[in-house]
Design goal:
By secondary structure, this protein is α/β, with parallel strands linked by helices. The chain has helices at about 5-25, 50, 60-70, 90-95, 140-150, and strands at about 30-35, 40-45, 80-85, 100-105, 130-135.
Length: about 150
């Protein structure tokens, strides 16, 4: 399987979770973590409203679950796929978890902390090198978010 095909496959899985989040009244963001053998380790979606927890972002929940399943906080052989560019909190958690690669769908021009508003992975505050690829299934990710927010106005 080519890298692009692989990235599209896993981002489609993250999008399925994002749709579920939106259906539950959460901002539609989904995340999956895979290992170096391309095996699913964990997955989640935004659940701030459900848990009344400001840290219950898709990325944080997926990272917590992956650490628990792998019995380590070091996810240095894992890749995180997420539909929206991570915020500062999630970017920090990604760096702290030592994830090898981050693949995201659409830039976040309000709170994106990977490349758009801030660049935490390449800043002096980062003690870890993170491979980053954005724009995978960008149109689908953007459309989902746009339609969800428009339906609430």
């Amino acid at each position: 399987m080519s890298d692009l095909h692989n990235h599209q496959y896993w981002m489609k899985e993250a999008l399925t979770l994002a749709i579920k989040a939106g259906e539950e009244g959460e901002i539609p963001v989904g995340a999956v973590i895979i290992d170096r053998q391309n095996k699913l380790i964990s997955s989640s979606y935004n659940q701030k409203e459900k848990y009344q927890d400001c840290t219950a972002h898709a990325e944080i929940l997926a990272i917590r679950d992956a650490c628990k399943k792998l019995s380590t906080w070091r996810l240095h052989e894992c890749t995180l796929y997420v539909t929206l560019e991570p915020c500062p909190m999630c970017a920090g958690a990604i760096i702290q978890a030592r994830l090898k690669t981050l693949i995201y769908g659409v830039d976040d021009f309000k709170t994106g902390a990977i490349r758009t508003v801030l660049n935490i992975p390449d800043s002096d505050a980062s003690n870890h090198h993170l491979q980053v690829f954005g724009g995978i299934k960008e149109t689908a990710c953007r459309s989902l978010l746009t339609s969800w927010f428009e339906s609430r106005r």
